[in-house]
UniProtKB/TrEMBL annotation:
Pathway: Carotenoid biosynthesis; lycopene biosynthesis
The enzyme's E.C. designation: 1.3.5.5
Presence of the UniProt keyword Metal-binding in the record: no
Reactions listed under catalytic activity: 2 a plastoquinone + 15-cis-phytoene = 9,9',15-tri-cis-zeta-carotene + 2 a plastoquinol
Protein name: Phytoene dehydrogenase
Family indicated by similarity: Belongs to the carotenoid/retinoid oxidoreductase family.
Species of the source: Fraxinus pennsylvanica
Classification of source organism: Eukaryota, Viridiplantae, Streptophyta, Embryophyta, Tracheophyta
């Protein structure tokens, strides 16, 4: 490829490592030659320079064999042209409505529970509209499902392995609004799958830059001859025709059927499910195709195939609390809002009329406001739901929504692993979902001498209660298949320096058949009480994009209800709110 951009790190076999490639500026590579053993750099503020080298693509698509004395192992690509897409423009317009809305004559004091992306998004856009959010977070760390912690060695470990897609228009707008677009490290437009029947080898779907959507996706599928046969590709394409023709209404109607059953219903061979959609299902919702609703897969495929850069991926350049969440907090506080950590809610206290009186915290103090928002995971809301609300159908339907368990594993090795890419990798393992060598893909975690693998252990239902040692042992057995020449389960090859295991017993809601009708709108039947979270009604399901969009929709509902909320008095719950 000629568009080759930002070289982050290099590995010179037989040469000294370059330890200080990262600086406050980007780097432009002027010379890359597989016959040379050095690179020539020049400092530059421009990101994404043009590099013409016939050998360039070969470096990025290497096989398991180490054939070159010089190997570029970490390359960032220019930000894709997503700003012209319809979805991006729609998201940008929604953002602008908060900034351009009439300034409230009486700014509302809005108390928001939960400083994950949904709560942060709600607070950010309400602050943009001129209101005064008070964001309460129960833990001592921001981010919710994107939280991370620093260990005693100064290394970070995260709740999950987070990928930012081009098809995340509200997230991409948020980065732009905060002025932090440069914190996304874009990777080449590919999807890379491990080959279980060929340990240590990978199969790629490469999306050509020169083709528009959906032709680039179709080309990527047709060019891959290792995972699916031509007859399987034809049957899969024919099976997808109803979704292509039927559009959004057809997609929504598939909520009631699992991926596995839908594939069989469409006459698509089980091998297609096994080869592609087990990995995709686990990546999307941490469960297998026999449980996942087909609606989830079709929504993802629609975004990836209809938007040229939809499936293009980026990594955040460091830990999410500091690199993503803090800029949102800074924006909120600059507009007069507040963010309070270690403020766990113990109870939602009600007025006699059934409306919210205040939030009671664990320390016994109370927080009062004009409006209240719950932006926690659905399981926490259900635990704290007042008895008087439990007979209301709006809340009763939440019983169907249950968070899925997931485990995130971090392993630091005593050496630099070679059989990897500067990208997200689909393991196609029975125990693991996706993984990445974060010492290569992420600027803050970069290490020229040692690898740190971050892996999603899923499905985790049977493992969530097991010890960290058991989980690491099982992970090492799987890694021995992915790195047969470098890792062995008994550590006779690469040795573990340390590890962290982060268990989330209830993560994103489990997108099983029949869950879609149970997802609530952000505006509840309780006057002055709203919900935000990826489980609420929005088109991006359980994802970071869904969380951010839910916050915007929650803020939009509050702004729309402003006149009522600014003048309201406690009222009796009507019969209509009880159904």
């Amino acid at each position: 490829m000629s568009q080759f951009g930002h070289v982050s790190a290099v590995n010179l076999r037989g040469q000294n490592n370059l330890n200080n490639l990262w600086s406050s500026q980007s780097w432009r590579c002027y010379c890359l030659d597989g016959k040379m053993n050095t690179l020539s750099f020049a400092s530059s503020d421009a990101m994404g320079s043009k590099l013409k080298s016939p050998a360039a693509h070969a470096f990025m698509t290497r096989s398991g064999k180490d054939v070159s004395p010089l190997k570029v192992v970490c390359i960032d690509y220019p930000r894709p042209g997503i700003e012209s897409s319809v979805n991006y423009l729609e998201a940008a317009y929604l953002s602008s409505t908060f900034r351009n809305s009439p300034r409230p004559y009486k700014p509302l004091k809005i108390v928001i529970a939960g400083a994950g992306l949904a709560g942060l998004s709600t607070a950010k856009y309400l602050a943009d509209a001129g209101h005064k959010p008070i964001l309460l977070e129960g833990r001592d760390v921001l981010g919710g499902k994107v939280a991370a912690w620093k260990d005693d060695d100064g290394d970070w470990y995260e709740t999950g392995l987070h990928i930012f897609f081009g098809a995340y228009p509200n997230v991409q707008n948020l980065f732009g609004e905060l002025g932090i677009n440069d914190r996304l490290q874009w990777k080449e437009h590919s999807m890379i799958f491990a080959m279980p029947n060929k340990p240590g080898e990978f199969s790629r779907f490469d999306f050509p830059e020169v083709l528009p959507a959906p032709l680039n996706g179709i080309w990527a599928i047709l060019k891959n001859s290792e995972m699916l046969t031509w007859p399987e590709k034809v049957k899969f394409a024919v099976g997808l025709l109803p979704a292509i023709i039927g559009g959004q209404s057809y997609v929504e109607a598939q909520d009631g059927i699992t991926v596995k059953d839908w594939m069989r219903k469409q006459g698509i061979p089980d091998r297609v499910t096994d080869e592609v959609f087990i990995a995709m299902s686990k990546a999307l919702n941490f469960i297998n195709p026999n449980e996942l609703s087909m609606q989830c897969i079709l929504i993802a495929l629609n975004r990836f195939l209809q938007e040229k850069h939809g499936s293009k991926m980026a990594f955040l350049d460091g830990n999410p609390p500091e690199r993503l969440c803090m800029p949102i907090v800074d924006h909120i506080t600059s507009q007069g809002g507040e963010v309070r950590l270690n403020s766990r809610i113990q109870k939602i206290e009600l007025n006699k009329d059934g409306s919210v009186k205040n939030f009671v915290l664990n320390n016994g103090s109370t927080v009062e406001g004009d409006v209240y928002v719950f932006a926690t995971p659905v399981d926490i809301l259900k635990l704290l739901l007042p008895e008087d609300w439990k007979e209301i159908q709006y809340f009763q339907k939440l019983d169907k929504l249950v968070g899925v368990p997931v485990i995130n594993v971090h392993i630091w090795f005593d050496r630099k692993l070679k059989n990897t890419y500067d990208h997200l990798l689909f393991s196609r393992s029975s125990l693991l979902s996706v993984y990445a060598d974060m010492s290569v893909t992420c600027k803050e975690y970069y290490d020229p001498n040692k690898s740190m693998l971050e892996l999603v252990f899923a499905p985790a239902e049977e493992w969530i209660s097991r010890s960290d040692t058991e989980i690491i042992d099982a992970t090492m057995e799987e890694l021995a298949k992915l790195f047969p020449n470098e890792i062995s389960a008994d550590q006779t090859k690469a040795k573990i320096l340390k590890y962290h295991v982060v268990k989330t017993p209830r993560s994103v809601y489990k997108t099983v058949p029949g869950s879609e009708p149970c997802r609530p709108l952000q505006r509840s039947p309780i006057e002055g009480f709203y919900l935000a979270g990826d489980y609420t009604k929005q088109k991006y399901l359980a994802s970071m994009e869904g969380a951010v969009l839910s916050g915007k929709l929650c803020a939009q509902a509050i702004v729309e209800d402003y006149e009522l909320l600014a003048s309201r008095e406690p009222k009796k719950l009507t019969e209509a709110s009880l159904v």
